[in-house]
Each structure stands twice: as C-alpha cells, then as structure tokens.
Amino acid sequence: MQDTGRRAFVKIAFLVGAVLSIIPFVPWGTYLSSTIKTGSAQRTLAQKVVVDDIPSKYGAAAGKVVNVNDLSTFPPNDHWVVTYPTSGDLTVDAENPDTFQKFELIRLPTTLGGDSKKATDFVAYSKVCVHLWCSPNYNPAPGHMQYECPCHGSIYQLPKEDSSGQLVDAGKAVAGPASFQAFPQNAIPMLTLQADANGDLWIFYFNADWAKTTVSSGKANIVSVDPIEGDGTIGYGRDYASYQNFIRPAAQAPLNADEESVPVS
User: Fold this and answer.
1) How far, in Å, are 108, 217, 218, 223 from residue 263 at the CA level?
2) What is the pLDDT at residue 98?
3) Would you call 109 exposed, middle or buried from its count of C-beta atoms within 10 A (0-12, 13-18, 19+)?
4) I need a labelling partner for 128 at 20 to 30 A (CA). Which of 18, 30, 139, 184 fits?
5) Half-sphere exposure of 18 (CA within 13 A, CB side)
6) How far apart are CA 253 and CA 54, in angstroms?
7) What is the DSSP pairing of strand 167-168 with strand 160-161?
C-alpha cells in the first residue's frame, strides 16, 4: 500500500514539475486577454470601422476606414483588428492593450460572398475566447478559414450557407473546449455592421434594437435587447442563430452627421 501511494506521489510530482518547466517558455501574454480598461473611449450611436493603425501588421489598411467597395485594400479572406469603442485617436486605439475592446474584422472568402461589396461581406468577432479568455485569430489558410484560439484549440466558424442560401451560425464554436460548452457559451460575441451609401462600414451601438431606437434633439432613445440574443456578452457568449437580425439595412439604423455623433452612456 505504501509503495502504491509513493508511486502516485512521484507521478503527481513529475507532472507538476513538467508543467512548471514549460511555463517560462510559453508566450502567454501573446494569447491572453488583457484586463478591462475603458480608458478614454466614448460610445456613440455609430462608429466608422477603422483598422488599428499598425502598418507593420496591416499595411495599406492600417488606420483606414473600411469601405466595402475597396477589394484591393480590404480583400476577401483577409482580416484586421479594430477597436470598439474608439478613443477618437488612432495612436491611442492602436496602443490600447484592452482585448475586451478589440474585434477581429474578417472579410469572408469569395465562396461565402466576400466580394459582394456589402456589409455582409464582413464579420467582426470579439478577441476574447468564451472558453478561458485567450485571444483567437482568423486563419485564412486553405483547409482552415476559421477563427482559432491558440491556447486550447477552440475553433469558431464563419457564417455558413443554409439550404436557402442564407448565411447562418456565425461565430459558433465547432471544435475545442468552447464547442462543448452549453448554449449560449458556445459562440463568440460579434459587432453589428452596416454599410452606408458610399460603402463605408459602420459599427452600431452594442446590443441595441435599431428598428426601435430613435434620436431627437441630440438625445438617443436606445432600446436594448437581451445581450445573448443580440451581439452577445464579451467573454461569455451569444445566440449564434441571431446573426441575420444584427446586420442592419440602412433604413433601420440612425446614420447621418447629427445622429452618428450622439454620445451615449
């Protein structure tokens, strides 16, 4: 009996030692989400989608407003990081370490209509995995084309076409530990996007019902929705079946010079 206990202790000690031995060599800071710090960010009813101004990562797209018509700067099956809500300063946004304010903007592959020159060419997924808050990245390589978490292998899919040709199930976890989590913790939060008449892409206030939200005399009457049925709760999850409801047609959301700049709490 003593030998059995001793062997079990040795095994446990060996495993603990092995784990401790690799900790200094794993770049956890590269993958783990930062703590929540809203800083100087100001939420408005609408915010133009601007790529973080990091030329070494995003080349010609760095610091630019995303336009759905620009297939050269923003080609299909490519990806960039955007900050929401913005501080209003490109440098501050680019240097912001708060992953809870970062979203990966993905232009879908052409097989999913990524060259349609519409808002639905794009999805913007939270950079916070719903499993253990590591930071996923889009992998555009053939055989992948999915949103992958480097820590524990959770994989979130791009929207896929159903039998009627509609894109559904955006951000649903299809592999790894997140895929085994109970609904709604098995899908990643995402932003509501819309393109204006010029093709510029916009982000709209998180978890709002734009068919019911109004603006009058510089004040917004925002009608909120359940986060799980809307854009989601960052780090927790969302209802992936609600995707079609949160790509807004132009007539259903405020979008003019007065309304877009209305600050909201």
Assistant:
1) 31, 12, 9, 15
2) 95
3) middle
4) 18
5) 6
6) 30
7) antiparallel
DSSP per-residue letters across 95-117: H---GGGEEEEEEPPGGGTTTS-
CA distance 245 to 140: 26
pLDDT in tens, 141-150: 999 999 999 9
What are the CA-CA distances from residue 197 to residues 21, 55, 125, 200 (Å)?
56, 28, 24, 8
3-state secondary structure of 88: coil
DSSP symbols for 19-57: HHHHGGGS-HHHHBPPPP--TT---BSEEE-BB-S-HHH
Residue 50 domain-assigned? Answer: yes
Residue 10 in tokens: 């040795």
State the pLDDT at residue 210. 77
- Separation in Å, CA 132 to CA 16, 78, 150, 168: 21, 26, 11, 25
Count of structural domains, the chain: 1
State the Cα–Cα distance between residues 148 and 129, nearest whole angstrom.
9
131: domain CATH number is 2.102.10.10
Q: Does residue 256 fall inside a structural domain?
A: yes
Q: Which of 179, 174, 120, 109 is nearest to 145 (CA)?
A: 109
Using alpha carbons, list the distances in angstroms from residue 261 to 3, 13, 43, 219, 256: 72, 59, 9, 10, 9
Residues of the chain with pLDDT under 70: 1-40, 243-261, 265
Among all chains, which residue has been given the structure tokens 């109004």?
Answer: 214
Q: What percent of the chain has pLDDT over 70?
A: 77
